[in-house]
Give the backbone structure.
Amino acid sequence: MAEQAMPTGSGTPAAAASGQALSEVFRGSAGDEHALRDARSSKGIAERTIPAFVAGAELADLAEDDERIVVLTADLANANRTADFAKRHPDRFFNMGVAEQNMVSVAAGLAAAGQIPFVATFASYLALLACEQIRTDCAYPGMPVRLLGHHSGMSLGYYGTSHHSLEDIGIMRTIADLTVVSAADANELRAILRLSLDWPGAMYIRLGRGRDPEVYPEPPAALRIGRAVRLRDGGDLTMISTGSEVRACLDAAEALANDGISVRVVDMHTIKPLDTDEILAAARETSAILSVEEHNRTGGLGSAVAETLADAGISTALLRHGVPDVHVVLGPPAGLYARYQLDADGVASKALELLSSSKGANL
Amino acid sequence: MPQARAPHPPRSSPGRQELVERLADRAKFIRLETVRLTRIAGAGHYTGTFSAAEILAALYYAELRYRPEEPSWPDRDRFVLSKGHAAIGLYPVLADVGFFAPSALDDYTRLGSSFGDHPDMRKIKGIDFSSGSLGHGLSVCVGMALAGRVQHRPYRTYCVTGDGELAEGQIWEAAMAAGQFRLGSLVCIVDRNRLSIDGHTEDLMGIEPLEAKFAAFRWKVQRIDGHDLDALLDAFSSLESDPVGPPQVIIADTVKGRGVSRMEGDVAWHVGNLNGSDYDDVIAELQAGLRPVATGARNG
């Protein structure tokens, strides 16, 4: 069983409000502000919202002591706030223009010469557009390139399918020698960035839209790549989630607790290498598993959970919750999360659906 | 940082004559090894390797700075063979200059070998980057050149591309970036052998006018006969040493299959295998040295 990096049994470990106004949270581009105006629907979320696009500032801090760090982006320095890095380390920042495939291969060349490049752009233009460059130039030669795919899932809302990334986990996790992680909030991202400096080989880091509600009150010092975090313990059901859906799961678990349902919530921040021990423990110790992700139900975290259970020969009630295998409808992010039951209310409904059907099956 | 480099011996000096003779001998060695290794594999990229034989010889026996005894010497010149399918001509050179024993090539392409049709930097000393997927190499070289700038190192980064791969959009993304960042330490050599797999580049997907294209992307351009060792050495000698000057391209007009008359300018030999007496005939032809290019092959 996996070492538990976080205390178990607590409700919401990170309830501290940042008190930061949304306009401050996202000083970047007007376009981004416009796209993301619509915060996730759950009540009170805004109070817990802190900036997730801390990568630029965090890397700038780390770069003070680590000359290997360089940062690249593709005409999104303000939107993803890598500009915060550029201001402090202009000689180690490269804005590559709207040319993502070139950017990834350039990063590989920088890595081959001893740098640790952090590449940041929309997840769809990393994992999808530059997929082959990630495999061939980063993963295959073992280059320590860190690929920050932000605005993953459908977080770009009504920008539409061209800007959505509901396939990236599935694509990235089939690439050998590529580590795949997903940050639930800004503080987990900070911890991941720190850990990434000594992690071998290439890494895809899936990020939300820069205003993800807080899960961790501070960067979790005990975080380990490949070791899931059990954020809340319970016996009736385990929610295994990643990235943007972890907060929704915690809120759903809290709501279900009021109905007497005891829910374990696991932050599976590392999708590859997967913490299979934690999945098998969930199968052993709780009655059902609900996987929750802002991703196509095909090929993502839920599929990885199902593969783990099947490989172990374990039959348990499992509901893989994600976006159905469709190109999602148009709309603001909050509307999409509600529509596809990926907000806290939706996740709670799926949990009840799972418990109801699994009890039925057991009868 | 200035990149002080001694120029190659001037034309018609005794040193130059000796050097050119040596390079011609090594180009012959590259072609002979390509034929030998292809027989081990059962098939191989003859013609695109033959077109680059003089380029590879001039680079490794005259131009590049490296230490076989210290493959990861941080100040070494970087070399990326973007047309990775010519690796069969590069491996023997790396062995010859001392990166590994020549006998390591005896299992070329066999199950579990380190040496495949395209080079793997994790398995082969002296390979600065894995290649094979066309259009990537120049981008990788942009990254290496940027790293040299970040680290204040004096090395140059050399890339050999094919001409067919210039149809890849990523090449021009990289060319644009190299111009934008004024990567004067980046040198691209285009093996302009005029043929890709399905035919003549200009019939398939025209890439000319190459000088004007690279110039428009803010590169300094030279165009030479890529089988003329004197011309190659002159081109290398005339490279600018300003690391924040324009990136530099040498368009090397070559003949695909150069050195084997039956293959020169013939698309059918992009991948092939010589059998029986054909093999012996080709070895004999190569050992006799280069003859004038077969009629028509030059224009491919």
Observations:
- The two ends of chain B are 42 Å apart (CA to CA).
- Chain B touches chain A at residues 74, 78, 80, 120-122, 128-130, 132-133, 136, 139-148, 150-151, 169-170, 173-174, 176-177, 180-181 (CB under 8 Å).
- The mean pLDDT of chain B is 95.
- The longest strand of chain B covers residues 186-192.
